[in-house]
Structures are given as C-alpha cells and as structure tokens.
Amino acid sequence: MADFVHLSAAGVSLVLDFRGPSLPAVVHWGEALGDLGPEELAELALATEPQPIGFSADTPVRVSILPEQSAGWLGHPGLAGHRDGTAWSSAFTVRGVDRSALGVRVRGFDETAGLELVIEIELHPAGVLRARARLTSTAPGTYWLDHLTLFLPVPAETTELLDFTGHHLRERSPQRTAFTHGLRVRENRTGRTGYDSPYLLCAGTAGFGNRHGRVWGVHTAFSGNSRTVAERNYHGHSALGGGELLLPGEIGLREGGSYTTPWVFAAFGAHGLDSVSERFHSYMRSRPGHPTRPRPVVVNTWEAVYFDHDLGRLTELAKAAATVGAERFVLDDGWFGSRRDDTSGLGDWTVSPDVWPDGLDPLIGVVRDLGMAFGLWVEPEMINPDSDLARAHPDWIMAAGDRLPPTARSQQVLDLHNPSAYGYVRDRLDALLSEHDIGYLKWDHNRDLVDAGHPASGRAGVHDQTHAVYRLLDELRARHPGVEIESCSSGGGRVDLEILARTDRIWASDCIDAHERVAIQRWTSLLVPLELIGSHVGAPRSHTTHRELPLDMRAGTAIWGHLGIEWDLTRATPGELARLGEWVALYKEVRSLLHTGTLVHGDVADPAYSLTGVVSESDALFAVTATATSEAYPPGAVALPGLDPARLYHVRPQPPGDVPDGNAAAWGAALPWCTPAGLRLTGRALGTAGLRLPVLYPDRVLLIRVTPTGEPT
Question: Signal peptide span per the entry (predicted)?
Fold first, then answer.
C-alpha cells in the first residue's frame, strides 16, 4: 500500500496520508499541486507537519478524516457510540485501500471494539469531493451509534464562515461569522432538510465574495436530520464536517449490521463563491439522470385558484396559459378525497367524485389538446386525522409510542417504514400515474417531523422515514421513468443533493414575491444549478407579502431558474398577457444558455444593486437588479464577470428587459451605452472597467445581452 494517494481534477488536489496503521489524514485539499511523485509527496507531508508542542501526546496528533481520541485527538470525535458502555473509543487500523475510477475505498478494523469501517473518498472531474462511511458491527451484542461524522481540514487562512438560516417564505438567508477557536455545530432536527439549514457551510479568506477570495465549502446531502460542523483549535487544526443527526436509539447495530452515512460533498474555489458554484453545477450536470430536455414553462394552479377546483374555470386558465406559451399545466392541492381545504383528505389518494365527477381526464384532455403536458400535486408522506385512511389505520401515524404528536397544518406523518403503509402509498401513486396521462408530480411535504416514532415500538423513526421516502421515489421512478418529480416542502424546506438525486427540480420557496426571490434564488443557486430551481411569475400583488411589483420585475427575476407562472391569468389584462408572452418567448430563447452556461455574480459595491449573469462561449445574459434606492445618483460602474478577456463583445440592452420603468431615460437623460445599438468592447475591458449602472427605481430589472463578435485575438 502506498504511503500517499494524490487525487487531482479540475485544478483541485487531495493528498491522503496512509503512513502508519491508522485511518488516513488529509495532507492537502485545495489548489492543484501538479504532478508530484512519492518522494515529493513525502516532502510535502514533512513540510506541513507541526512541531510536537502543546499536544495531548508526545508526538503531533495525526488528525484523520474520522478523528479519533485514541490518536490523541481531544476535539470533536468522528465516531461516537458504545457497546453497553464499552467500545466508546475507537482505534481503527487500515487493512486495505482499493483504488477506484474516482478515488479510494479504505477498509479499517477495530478488533477490540468489534467494528469495521469502510470510507469512500471520491474526487469528481468537476473538482467536487465527496465522502461517506459504512460502519459494521463484527461482535456479539448491540453497538449503539450516536454519530458518525467525516471531516475535511481547511487552512489557517480561512478566517470567516458563511452558512445559511431562514424560515418559511425566507429560505437560505446568508449569515457570516468569524471562524474562531471552538466548535460551531449546526443541527437540523426537523425531519427534513429544513429552513434553518446551513445548506452549504463555507470557510474562506477574509472578506471573500462572489469573485474573490479562496473558499472551501461542505454540504451534507441528506433529507432528514443532519449535523454540519466547523471546528478550529489551538493546535492549528481547522476542519469542516458533516453527517446525519441520529435520534437516541435510531441506530443499534447487532453483529453483522451496518450503517452508512450520507454523502458529504465538498468543493474548493480559488476565486470566490462563483468558483465553488461552478464546480457543484458542473458535477450536477454530469449526472446520468440530470434533465437534458428544455425545461418547460410551467403553469401551477395554486395561487390562481387554491382549493376552488372547477373544470370550467380551470379550462379557461389552461387556455390563457397556452396563449402566453406555457408548456406544462400543474393541478395543485384539492383534487382528491374530501380535500376542500387543508384540514382533511390527506392520505385518500383517489380523485374526488364531488369536484371531479367525470374524473381528471376531461381536464387532462383540455390541457393535452392545448399542447401542454399535465402535472399533479401530491403529498404522499402525510395524513390528515380527518381522512378515511386515518380512520382505517390510526396505527400508521408516526408517534412516540401511544402519544400522538401535535398536529401541524392539521396533519400528521404517515409511517412509511411500516410495509403496509408504504405499499398503500406506492400502489395509489402507481395507479394514478398508470391510469392518467400525468408527466409530472409536485411532491410536497408540509410539516416538520415532531415526535416522529414508530408507533408499534415507540422507537425514533426519522432515519427510517427518510430512507423509506428515498425507496419510494426510486421505485416510482423505476416504474414510470418518464415522469418528472419536483421536491417541494412548504416551499424550500427540502433542498439537498440527495433528494435531487431522485427529483428533477426543487421549489425554492412558497414566496414568489420577486423582491424576496432575488436573494432566495441567488443563494439557492450557490449549490443548485438554475434549471433545477422552480421560479414563478406571481400576481401583481404578492400573495405572501402583499407587495405590489411591476410585471417586468416579476418576470425578469423568474427567468433565472426553471420558469413558471402562478397567477390567475383569466384576470390579467390583454396588455399583461401580451407582455408576459414576450417574457416567456425570451425564456424559451435563452433557456439553453441559462441552463448550461456558467453562473456568475458581480461584486457590486452598491448594496441597492446586484448583478447576475450566465456566460457561455457563444452568448451571455446579465441582469442588473435594483431592490432599493442607491446612495449614489447616478450609481457607479460594475464589471461584467466571466467573459473571455481576449474576445470582442457586442453589448446592448435585451428586450423585453431593455426599458424597465425608471431607467435613466425616464429622467430625460439616457444612459449613453444603453441604446439598441449598444457598444463593442473586449471581455477584458468589460470585466475590468465594466459598465455604468443605470438609475433604477427599486424593484426593477435591466437585462444586458453580450455576444462575441469574432474569434479570440
């Protein structure tokens, strides 16, 4: 076995140290080191080894990817558990290292504790690192696992942390803290990915931004309870880690039993957050199941009609949707059982004869005849106490023994770890997809998991429930491979890379107020590429904030994702429909660019403005968005990032986002470059000197089209 393994891809190096019998340590994770031979790797390890001063052992503590106290590490342990009070401290010895196409598979044993550990470490072609571990009990009795967390070291130059918080209607709100000595643990106990999720925990150099600074980020890819960790100690060791948060007694491993952690994804960016995003987006787009067809324009009925389902009304809505260019029509909540409001019917997945006496096929026929695909809303993991299913099977409701959890949104959680409950839901969804021409499911999940146990045993059940949902999605996808699925969870409450391994887009937020969506979509796209982010044009007055916004702001924000419309178009004026049609036409023109190009963001000094763009070799589109009034009048210039410095570009405003209400022309003084003819400048000039920003009223968008005019010079 080699002393060192050096993995390298896309400008990133990972060097693993296998000297000695213990688990591997990470010598380097960051910028590519070039082609280093065995002797040079040994010299690198020597160059970075600390003095034997201040440690809890006579020699420097070698901190592995799974830190162990037996090695002298007194920080956060990678493994915590016990076997009836013993085997509480592990001491794994490596017995084998297998190379794979993307990385290594490390096998370790602790004969005393009766444990086997297999760690998989991969470096993908995009430079994205991912790791997971499998723990197996090899001794009699039960090993009770508390947590299993993998760590990746980051250098001392990382002095700031960026992670995220939020709530319903305000998901993925950024927060920065100093990366100081001690342990920062973000725990999610909601039973889903959660609003208050760290999402992507980033450590970076002082003041790192969109386009500057060195950044290291980790994401725990799990849709249940999770833990994400940052730790820095006085020995000069700093690390980021992640894993599942296990409730007491969830994982008890008998002899031969195994537990596998979620994947922990990680990326390094040498040039700010955009370089981290680019790696994650490239990785996502390289997946075999990643959507490749043009992302269709969606019309969703929720904010248009809510529970008021009527064939005539929905037919008129479908006609209006087709008129503006919609390509998919999604019937939201209210089509099944007794579901006339949100207090009853969940679990009764049969078409309501009261609302749909002739079934769904008449509406599906209208939608298909108008040239659109049909989609349907479901919430399979939940159950209303007021439902036929709950009355027939109260034992299928998750509970801590005989004590029912408090209801939320008048619903409880269906125990999908129960084979009978699982089979019922699977068969009902399978029947719906088999009996109707349904090409899309909006899969919702509208409450946290409180006291979520298996009622028969009383054991905690979030881990089992999460994996049952994964199995259910996998099975339905296998039976209906052409059906796309959206992950929705009270808006953006279930957004992670593991749910996205089984779904085709996420619903970023129930708030479609464009003012709020500027930030929600920007930070969601830090990890998730635009084509997977549902983004809708709402009504003139937002249903969630009551803010009134012009159509160009609503549509000009919504195109930066997977475009949809959630507005009662039967009440729109002819002028509004015509203008919306122009925006839909633009989206169709540029969606191949937006959904395959490189997402970039300007480091705009003026907090009133933001700059977002997508750049490819042959095209680029930028949006200048104002969400407040500027301190400067007129405002300054902003660089256009991501362009080829050696190429000449044609720069001009892009209709219909070329004349936002309130641009400089509205004041009788047109911005000189902002004309249909535009100007021609090199990518170097545009990326350095930039363009002067226009005066904009708050909540306005200006689109800029940038196309190369010739070959690089």
Answer: none
